[in-house]
Amino acid sequence: MNKNKFALTPPMGWNSYDYYDTTVNEEQVKANADYMAEHLKEFGWQYIVVDIEWYAHGAGSQRDRYQYIPFSKLEMDEFGRLFPDPERFPSSVGGAGFKPLADYVHGLGLKFGIHIMRGIPRIAAHNHMPVKGTKVTADVIANPSSICGWNPDMYGVRDMAEGQAYYDSLLELYARWGVDFIKCDDICNTNIYPHNPYSGRHEIEMLAKAIEKCGREVVLSLSPGPALIDKAWHYETYANMWRITDDFWDDWRLLKDMFRRCELWQKHVSEGCYPDCDMLPLGCLGKGFGGERTTNFTLTEQRTMMTLWCIFGSPLMIGAELTKLDEDTLEVLTNRRILAMLTPDCEPAQLWLDEKKAVWKACNEKVGSKYVALFNLSEEEAELSIELAAAEIEDGRHLTELWTGEGAEVTEGVLHVKVPAHGCAVYGTV
C-alpha cells in the first residue's frame, strides 16, 4: 500500500506553531493566508496549516505554567471527534467545523491543513462516548497505557477494527471540512517509550487506510522526530513526510547537526516521500511562547538553511508570522533558482562532512540541471574548493551562484570560493 501520490514535490507552506504556539485564531490564519496568496503562491507556496490545540478552550492562557493545560475543556462532537474552539474560530459554530475556514483558504487558490494528536481524546474514553459506525464506546478502543509524554489530551487507539473505524470517522469529517494536509503528532517517534519508540506504528497504518477511504487527497505528515532510520520503508509506505529531528529552532548548533541527519536520510527522498527537516524558523517568532522576537539566524545562516533544505529535498514550512516578513527574508523564501532544487528529480548526495565544511551535489536528469553546494560550518571565513568532476559537472563556465547570480571561479577543473562563517555558496548549471 503506497499512499504517496498526493505530494509529487515536497510540500511548501506556512504553519502557525513557531509564532502562535497554541493560540492561533481564525482572523490570524486568514491574514497569513492572504499574505501567502499575494506574495508567495506564485513561487510554489500553498499550504496553510493550523497547528496544535485548535480544539482546546483557553489554550495559551496559562503559558507561564503549562504549554498544554491538563484536563482543559476540549471542543468535540458526540462521537469524540475534536472540533475547533468556537471562541477562536467563530465560523466553526453549528457543526461547521473547519469547512468555512478551509473554503476561505481554497478560495485564495491555497490548500488547508491541520495538526492532530495521535489517538482519541481521553475525555471521550472517560465518558464512554460512542465510536461512530460501531457498537462500542471510546473506552473500548482507547489504550490508557499509550500516552504522549508532553501533551495530556489523548490516549492511543488500540489495533482493532473499531479503532480503525474511529480513524475512518475522523477522515470522513476532515474530508467534509476540506482538509488537504494532516500533521499527526506523537506518532513518528513515541519518545516517551525508549524501549518502543515506534509504538504508534499501527496508528500510522490506520491513518493511511482512513485517508485512502475518505475520497480526498490528504497529505500525511508525521511528527515528532527523530524518525527511526530502520523504519524508513514503513514511513515511505504509509506517509508523505516524517520528521528527522525533534523541534527545530533558530540555533546554529541545530542547523549544523542537520547536515548529519540529512546524510542519514538522503537516499530516502523520492516522489511523495520526504524526510522532513522541520519548519523554517525565520522572521518574527515566539509570540505565543511569551514574547515576539526576531529569528536568531543571521541572513547568512538563513541562506545556508534554505539551501540545505532545498538541495536535500525537505518539505518547506515557514514558521514566521507572514504579515511581518521583511524584504530580506522574503527574498530568501522566493529565490526561484534555489527553489528549483526542491524536487525529488534532483537526487541529492552529501560528498563531504566534517566539523568545518560540508559539500553536496544534486543532478536533475529530467531537465539537465546539476548543482554543487559548499557550506562553511566553521566560525571564520574560509576558502572552499571542490573538483567539479566529483559533482559530475564537466564545464564550470556554465555555473551560476544561485544566491548572487554570479559566475564561478574554476581553475583546472577545481571550483574555488570564499564563504563566510556559517555561510554557503551553491552553483547550478541553470
The percent of residues in helical segments reads 25-40%
Overall radius of gyration: 22 Å
Portion in beta strands: 15-25%
What kind of assembly state do the chains in view correspond to?
single chain
Descriptive labels:
single chain, 430 residues, alpha/beta, eight-stranded parallel beta sheet, elongated
Task: Explain this structure.
The chain is of the alpha/beta class and 430 residues long. The chain is 27% helix and 22% strand. It contains 12 helices and 21 strands. It has helices spanning 17-20, 26-40, 99-107, 122-126, 138-141, 161-177, 201-214, 232-238, 252-265, 299-312, 327-333, 336-339, and strands spanning 12-15, 47-50, 111-117, 120-121, 142-147, 154-157, 181-185, 219-222, 241-243, 274-276, 284-285, 293-294, 316-318, 346-353, 357-364, 369-376, 382-387, 400-401, 409-411, 414-419, 424-428. An 8-stranded parallel β-sheet has the order 10-9-8-7-3-2-1-13. A 5-stranded antiparallel β-sheet has the order 14-15-16-21-18, covered by helices on one side. A 3-stranded antiparallel β-sheet has the order 4-6-5. Helix 6 crosses helix 7. It starts with 11 loop residues before the first strand and ends with a strand. The mean pLDDT is 96.
